[in-house]
Each structure stands twice: as C-alpha cells, then as structure tokens.
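Lecture 7 notes: from sequence to structure.

We start with a single chain of 204 residues. Read the sequence below before looking at the structure.
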Amino acid sequence: MQKLLETLPLQLHQYQKYWAEMDFPTEFNSLESMVKLDEQSPKSYFRDHFLPGHFTGSALVVDPSMTQVLLTLHSKLNMWIQLGGHADGDTDLYEVAFREACEESGLYSITPYRNAAFNTLGQDFMMPFDIDIHTIPAHKDEPEHQHFDVRFLFTADPFETLTITNESKALKWLTLSEAKKLTSEMGMLRQFAKVDHLRRLTLH
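Now the structure, written as tokens:
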C-alpha cells in the first residue's frame, strides 16, 4: 500500500534530486510532463487513456552482484526490455512494477533494491530508478500513444527458475555487456549505466 505522502510528484522530485549530478538530460525533460499528466487526469492511470497516453510501471531486475540484468523479449514490440506493464487504475506505480515483475518472470525472490545511498529518505521510500516517455505504435484497435513509464530497481536470484508468459517470447539473464549489444534504445542503455553506477557505489 502506497504511503500517504509517497505521491508520484514526491517520488519524481526525490528522483531528480538524486540523479542531478549525472548526465541524463533526456529523461529529466520528461519530469514536468509526468507531473502534469498526473495532476490533470486520474484516468491517465488506465490503459484506455490514449491522449497523450497513460502511466505504466516497470521493473529492472538485477542479480545481487549487480552484474546481470533480467530482460524480456517483448512479444508485441519484439525488443529486449525490462519487465513491466499497465497500471490499470493503480496509482502506486511501485506496486505495479513489483506485481508485473513477479507475474512476468515467475520469480519469488524479487525484492526492492536497498542501498542507503539510493534510498535517501529511508528504506521504506520507493524512489524511481528511471523514467521514460516513449511512443507505442498502433496495434489492432489501439491508436498510437505514449507510455509514461516509471521504473524501479529490484534484485532477484538468477538461479531461480524462470516462467515465460504470453507477454514474452523469451526471458534471459544477461551481463551488462551482453545486454548492451541487444539494444540501441537510449532508455535501456541509460538504465544499464545507472546499474553500473550503483554497483560501483557498493564497492566503496
């Protein structure tokens, strides 16, 4: 259950504050648009809100050493991406991301990433790991629209058995080097860079 004060604007404010020293200007341009959409329409958390789009919650899952990431070959997009999905009315995008990660992987060991340097407001505050606004092409009766994607970081046991659902053509643990070779999407490469940054923090 989302805490009373843990609203999306607060999450995004803390997110921007944390990553301000890093050079990821494209995603910071998305912050104002996300806050505006959240304030303008509660319907933006439903998948049939197409203009300009709707919120989604995603989960980048890494192994405890932060040297591997779990990616899915998305069945519709035919791209290697992080796990995640539609909010379907749930305004707690952390819970959306967690639920989707569990459902799409079959993993029981998924837990939120915990690090005092990252969870600056305390271990119970779920700060986004990444944000991204991207265009989803028209499909069947759905017009082209945008996903306002709020992403969270999780860890899981890479030796646990994976379960592939109809959302995915494949699921695979990959090293960061391997993952980088499977995509040219800035939103994915940015997440990999952030994982490497946080991994190096834990080594000091």
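The longest strand covers residues 145-155. Keep this in mind for problem set 3.
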